[in-house]
Specification:
It is found in: Chromosome, Telomere; Nucleus. The protein has 237 residues and is α+β, with helices and mostly antiparallel strands. The chain contains nine helices and ten strands.
Length: 237
């Protein structure tokens, strides 16, 4: 048996509880929470030790098949943290919160987003699929309401009638998506996490998140692919 890295304090427990109740926590909020938990519990606090603090919690979560995972927002590249249950797949995780027909709408939406070129699916396309369900049809009004709930619960994000996967969804379902969409799901060539909204090299087919594209090409006079050195033809965001 591996020895636990460090003792789990009340500060660790409090941090974990808040993360679990939030569903997902933005990086700056997690840093504030880390400081607050340490100071409340009167334990040693260092502003640059959040990753170590989380590692301690993760060593205690390991036997429970759970883990705090860090992911980056595909919009702006900011860090987020979420508690992931490694023993459950996407379907079993969501099955306790949603009906079978609602899950079918989520799966169809996920298909459209992942199979799209830009990582977005229009509400029109999503609502059209609701008409073609195998078991029972879902009325458009009802489907719109369910999509709203998925946005509120941070499984989807919506911008001007276009839907994509929320950062929480990407963190929690990365393994599920990579194994269920093997032919199309790709990891970012720069940060190596799942890339839904990405740019793709026309020559060799690697993908990069938009924030990673921005960061990578900032220092280059001519944008060239980090893998094949071909000219990067996409517009740099």
């Amino acid at each position: 048996n591996t020895v636990m890295a460090a003792q789990m304090t009340n500060a660790h427990r409090r941090f974990l509880q808040v993360l679990m109740s939030n569903g997902i926590t933005e990086g700056s909020e997690a840093r504030k929470l880390h400081q607050h938990c340490c100071e409340t519990d009167k334990v040693y606090y260092a502003h640059d030790k959040l990753d170590d603090f989380i590692s301690t919690i993760n060593s205690h979560l390991q036997p429970l098949f759970m883990q705090i995972r860090k992911g980056l927002s595909e919009d702006d590249g900011r860090a987020h943290y979420a508690v992931v249950n490694l023993a459950e797949t996407e379907v079993t995780k969501m099955a306790s919160d949603y009906t079978e027909i609602e899950l079918e709408l989520f799966r169809k939406t996920m298909d459209l987003i992942i199979l799209s070129e830009n990582g977005f699916a229009s509400s029109t396309d999503i609502l059209n699929t609701a008409d073609q369900f195998k078991t029972k049809k879902m009325k458009k009004k009802e489907a719109e309401q369910v999509l709203k709930v998925f946005v509120e619960d941070k499984w989807l994000s919506e911008k001007n009638g276009e839907y994509t996967l929320h950062t929480r969804c990407i963190i929690e379902m990365e393994q599920y998506i990579l194994s269920n969409y093997q032919d199309v799901a790709r990891k970012c060539n720069i940060c190596h996490s799942l890339a839904i909204q990405s740019q793709v090299c026309e020559s060799c087919g690697i993908g990069m998140h938009l924030p990673c594209v921005r960061k990578y090409f900032r220092a280059q006079t001519e944008p060239r692919c980090p893998k094949c050195n071909g000219f990067w033809s996409c517009d740099i965001p």
